[in-house]
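Propose amino acids for all 70 sites.
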């Protein structure tokens, strides 16, 4: 499937992915965010973490994006 023009899919390194999840999920109870998340994201069986976002006219972070790890 082709990615529409004006959209980007970026692969995040495990440390950046862990930081993104931590930032996004901080209001949740501590048990929702595993303490070993960086190790899980860096595990050899994890294919990667990807962020999809729409390109905007400025460099600010878009209001809508998708984050997926598998």
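Proposal:
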């Amino acid at each position: 499937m082709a990615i529409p023009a004006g959209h980007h899919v970026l692969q995040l390194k495990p440390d950046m992915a862990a930081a993104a999840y931590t930032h996004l999920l901080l209001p949740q109870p501590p048990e929702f965010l595993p303490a070993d998340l960086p190790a899980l994201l860096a595990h050899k069986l994890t294919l990667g973490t990807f962020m999809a976002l729409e390109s905007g006219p400025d460099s600010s972070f878009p209001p809508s994006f998708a984050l997926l790890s598998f």
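The mean pLDDT is 85. The chain is about 25% helix and 25% strand.
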